[in-house]
Amino acid sequence: CENMIPTFADPKGFIVQENYIERFFLLNDQFHGEYLRYYPDKNVLNHSFYCFGKLHGDCISYHRDGTMSAKIFYKHGKKNGFFESFYSSGSLCKKEFYLDGQKEGWSYSYYPNHLLKSKIFYRNSKIEGVGVLFDSDGSEIGAKGLSNNEPKSTELKYSAADIDTGGTLVTSSDTPRNAPCPCGSGKKYKRCHGAS
């Protein structure tokens, strides 16, 4: 931003807090601009951006060894877009979609061996319908959820083969046109698999 003079906690722009080092800019006593937090060994722990005290932009966290542990995009302090977290090996641990701070659509969790651990559908950060849980060998071991305020009309039935091969998801009744598409694309059903 033009004509803004950043202020730091000390003249060098670093503070040490609980053995972590932070570097940031303040504007009117609020975080503004790039924010970095380091492990005591000076490897980056978190790299994010703020706009007038609210997270805004990419927020990336790292494991101590420097591999990425999580990534999410913020818009005016709310999560927006895909959230992904990773094991220190680099394999995907979790992937879910947010819209205006609310978890929407499919949330996937994975075992360190890359096999699916769970697949659960969310609307407004609440479980909707039935999600499926898998054991570490990929076998289906149970179902989870069904919100109390929603009818079973959006219950989804699928198998591990459907998930891993991109097979077609079968709904027990019509998915509402304005609901997130069950495929997990983040699009409305009417603009994705519901388009005729």
Blueprint (SSEs and pairs):
Blueprint: E1 14-17, E2 20-27, E3 30-38, E4 44-51, E5 54-55, E6 57-62, E7 68-75, E8 78-79, E9 81-86, E10 92-99, E11 102-110, E12 116-123, E13 126-127, E14 131-134, E15 140-144, E16 156-157, H1 160-165, E17 170-171
Antiparallel strand pairs: 1-2, 2-3, 3-4, 4-5, 4-6, 6-7, 7-8, 7-9, 9-10, 10-11, 11-12, 12-13, 12-14, 14-15, 16-17
Quick rundown:
Helix content is 3%, strand content 47%.
Outline the low-pLDDT stretches.
1-16, 146-173
Q: Which whole number gives the mean pLDDT? A: 75
> Number of DSSP helices?
1
Shape type:
flat
Order of helices and strands: EEEEEEEEEEEEEEEEHE
The strand count comes to 17
The secondary-structure class comes to: mainly beta
Tell me about the largest β-sheet: 15 strands, antiparallel
Radius of gyration: 20 Å
Give the termini separation: 46 Å
Percent strand equals over 45%
Helicity level: under 10%
Characterize the structure shown.
With 196 residues, the chain is mainly beta. It contains 1 helix and 17 strands. The chain has one helix spanning 160-165, and strands at residues 14-17, 20-27, 30-38, 44-51, 54-55, 57-62, 68-75, 78-79, 81-86, 92-99, 102-110, 116-123, 126-127, 131-134, 140-144, 156-157, 170-171. The chain has a 15-stranded antiparallel beta sheet that branches. A two-stranded antiparallel ribbon has the order 16-17. Strand 1 and strand 2 form a beta hairpin. It is flat, with a radius of gyration of 20 Å. The termini are far apart. The model is unreliable at 1-16 and 146-173 (pLDDT under 50).
